[in-house]
Write a structure and sequence with these properties.
heterotrimer; A mainly alpha; B mainly alpha; C alpha/beta; B: mainly alpha; MetI-like fold; 8 helices; elongated; C: alpha/beta; Rossmann fold; four-stranded antiparallel sheet; 9 helices; binds adenosine-5'-triphosphate; binds magnesium ion; transmembrane transporter activity (chain A); MetI-like_sf (chain A); Amino acid ABC transporter permease (chain A); MetI-like (chain A); transport (chain A)
């Protein structure tokens, strides 16, 4: 315990880096997921082909491979070096965004046909329908899987330690090397990761609740703190395609 | 510097060696995840043990695979190979996910099936072995398949603990020749070559089994 | 896509019928639901469509709302083609833009209400006027309040659809359709999804609309008394064709066709 208390500032700064990369990666993934997911629901063949190409490619290649490619192959192809944090954010965002795009596409397609027909009867434009009817309703359905994806992304940020970024994993590695205390060094990091994950879960559950309340559905059982802490459902990684 | 085909040809054998290790690690880890996951799913139904198992699995699910790998690698006695550590950690990590898949499958078996077993006074091993699990597993085959692909894509992490899989070979080649482009690109292509067809396969499985 | 040989100007002009079906064919795969259907509806007229299940009543309303596209033939609304548009002196398939412009005159109330669950009652009613018609927000709000007054739900303006009974939801849906100030209102079995005790409230609202406005209505209903009270004309359909038509007193009181008699006999018992 003393080991950990003495090194708390180090671990916290590592956790800060982990959190920043998580949030940046999640922001990029979110934008990509929304745009590509919506492209995938259009009638236009070219738009759908672009969406499929993106999702199949970036789900197919692991974030780690992508990150190494950007960090090491790009400097060889071009005169530019890519900042390791930037490479990591890009790799994670592209990878998780591909899973997210499938979630967005499925959620949009799951909005009942009757709702679309009502928007036609009110003569709404495509954009208006998407903004005020389709996305708000699909949103509630996307959130649970988004929650899982955020956790997966947070865990995946550990790979940045391999290209020299001083995140939580890197701090643990360095502390182990410096002290030889393997158990203490890594348990500390694992616990901090776990706490971050729980915070993200609670945050996502709050968003989910708000979304469901907006749709006028909040089951009575889904209240109280315990409900917020429930674990993510079964299909977290594979869940992209469900 | 641009793409060098001759160099590409030279490194392919090494990369294929790596690919073999990647596939071995994936398959062994997956078998472990399938078996252990089922054990966990069943253990979770036991009152106190279940809660404890659940807490451990939740912890495993919420922390990075990379850290778990490195941690166990340092803790393991020296006669245990890095490959063994890699397979074991992969298997346990993914068991935390497959356990949830099995659980949802078991919960999805209609109550009438349990009642029928009770009505026939079937012993527990027949209830589980002949009625519940066959139905539960059938409906989760696609979800389990998704985790096979996910696991395959996580095997590059094993290079962090010096397992000689694909990624390890690529970064070794990169370090030796100071050329990363060809090796890294090939790794990406290898992964695509396996992932895309298997995603198609899973979609077929889904059509076939998931609707049950 | 069939190109229409009909020269421009062949459609009904001002002063003619408001709705005209001109040889309309609708097929779903091999199933021909409407087979060269012709009929017209005058401005302000209220027409009830009756007929056995599967005879194509819903399909007619959905074609008018552009929820389905015709296989052949032309639908005219207010002297303009709805299913087609003029191009180079010919009629070609309408694009989305043309359909949006023409269908602005048409509103629809659905059997299952189809209120937007992510919006309050007020937002449901003002969404169309504000964003499709460009009515200023304040005016749309005022109009929403008036309409809710009319459907007797003034106190529910900030409620969510899920907090309302089926009958209340359907009255909101009627208010929502009326807020678009349609010239034509399509009503497809709007009371069929309701518990029996909630039907009267909805029908009373529709009676008020019929009495106080000159909106042209096309309705499909199994409420024969209501149909008799509000409609000017009844069309009896079977297998996508009009079997018989006439004023409600005649169709309900003295049907000439055997099929009409059999159908009414079956429903009225
Ligand atoms: N989207 C569709 N795809 C295929 N067939 C359809 C579709 N919509 C309607 N049909 C078919 O068209 C025919 C007419 O259907 P329609 O709904 O217009 O009948 P209806 O007169 O409204 O009947 P009901 O009184 O049962 O509502 C039926 O045979 C139906 O099966
Ligand atoms: Mg119908």
């Amino acid at each position: 315990m003393d080991f950990f208390i003495d090194r708390l500032p180090l671990y916290l700064s590592g956790a800060g880096t982990t959190l920043v990369i998580t949030l940046l990666g999640a922001a990029l993934a979110f934008v990509l997921a929304m745009v590509v997911g919506m492209l995938g629901t259009l009638r236009n063949r070219a738009a759908r082909a672009v969406a499929t190409g993106y999702t199949e490619t970036f789900r197919g290649v692991a974030a780690l491979v992508l990150m190494y490619w950007m960090a090491f192959a790009i400097p060889q192809l071009t005169p530019y070096e890519i900042d390791p944090v930037f490479a990591a954010v890009l790799a994670l965002g592209l990878n998780v965004g591909a899973y997210g795009a499938e979630v967005v596409r499925a959620a949009i397609n799951a909005v009942p046909r009757a709702q679309i027909e009502a928007t036609i009867a009110l003569n709404m434009s495509w954009w208006r329908r998407t903004r005020s009817v389709v996305l708000p309703q699909a949103w509630a359905q996307m959130l649970p899987t988004f929650g899982n994806l955020v956790i997966e992304l947070m865990k995946a940020t550990a790979i940045v330690s391999l290209i020299g970024v001083a995140d939580l994993t890197r701090v643990a590695q360095e502390q182990r090397a410096a002290t030889g205390e393997t158990i203490a060094a890594f348990t500390g990091a694992l616990v901090v990761y776990f706490v971050i994950a729980q915070l993200l879960i609670v945050g996502m559950r709050l968003l989910e609740r708000r979304a469901n309340r907006r749709l006028g559905r909040l089951p009575a059982s889904d209240t109280g703190l315990w409900a917020l802490l429930r674990p993510p459902p079964a299909t977290a990684i594979g869940g992209g395609r469900r | 510097m641009t793409w060098d085909w001759e160099f590409t040809g030279k490194i392919i054998p090494d990369l294929l060696d790596g690919l073999v290790v990647t596939v071995q690690a994936t398959l062994l880890g997956y078998v472990l995840a399938l078996v252990l996951g089922l054990a966990v799913a069943l253990a979770r139904r036991v009152p106190v043990l279940g809660t404890a198992v659940f807490a451990v699995m939740e912890f495993i699910r919420c922390t990075p695979l990379l850290v778990q790998l490195v941690f166990v690698f340092y803790l393991a006695p020296s006669y245990v190979s890095a490959f063994t550590v890699g397979v074991a950690v992969l298997g346990v990590h993914y068991a935390a996910y497959t356990a949830e898949v099995y659980r949802s499958g078991i919960e999805g078996v209609p109550p009438g099936q349990w009642e029928a077993c009770r009505a026939l006074s079937l012993p527990p091993h027949r209830t589980w072995g002949a009625v519940v699990l066959p139905q539960a597993i059938r409906r989760v085959i696609p979800a389990l398949g998704n985790y096979l692909i996910a696991m395959f894509k996580d095997t590059p992490l094993l290079f962090a603990i010096t397992v000689g899989e694909l990624m390890y070979q690529a970064s070794r080649i990169g370090g030796v020749y100071f050329r990363y482009l060809e090796a890294m690109t090939l790794v990406g292509l290898f992964f695509l070559l396996v992932s895309v067809p298997s995603a198609v396969l899973i979609r077929r499985l889904e059509r076939r089994y998931a609707a049950v | 896509m069939p190109q229409y040989e009909t020269p421009l100007g062949a459609g009904p002009g001002a002063g003619g019928p408001l709705i005209r079906f001109d040889g309309v064919v609708k097929r779903f795969g091999d199933n021909t639901v409407l087979d060269h259907l012709d009929f017209t509806v005058a401005p302000g007229e209220r027409v009830t469509l009756i007929g056995p299940s599967g005879s194509g009543k819903t399909t007619i309303l959905r074609l008018l709302m552009t929820l389905e596209q015709v296989t052949d033939g032309v639908i005219w609304v207010g002297g303009e083609p709805l299913s087609h548009m003029p191009k180079g002196g010919r009629l070609v398939r309408a694009n989305e833009r043309h359909q949006r412009r023409v269908r602005r005159q048409i509103g629809m109330v659905f059997q299952q209400f189809n209120l937007f669950p992510n919006m309050t009652v007020r937002q449901n009613i003002t969404e169309g006027p504000v964003h499709s018609l460009g009515v200023p927000r304040g005016e749309a709000d005022r109009r929403a309040a008036e309409l809710l007054e009319m459907v007797d739900l003034a106190d529910k303006i900030d409620a969510h659809p899920t907090q309302l009974s089926g009958g209340q939801q359907q009255r909101v849906a009627i208010a929502r359709a009326l807020a678009m100030r349609p010239r034509i209102l399509l009503l497809d079995e709007v009371t069929s999804a309701l518990d029996p005790e909630l039907v009267t409230g909805v029908l009373d609202v529709l009676r008020t609309v019929a009495e106080t406005t000159d909106i042209t209505m096309l309705l499909v209903t199994h409420e024969m008394q209501f149909a008799r009270d509000v409609s000017h004309r009844v069309l009896m359909f079977d297998q996508g064709r009009i079997v018989e038509e006439g004023p409600p007193e005649q169709i309900f009181g003295d049907p000439r066709e055997e099929r009409t008699r059999a159908f009414l006999h079956a429903v009225l018992d």
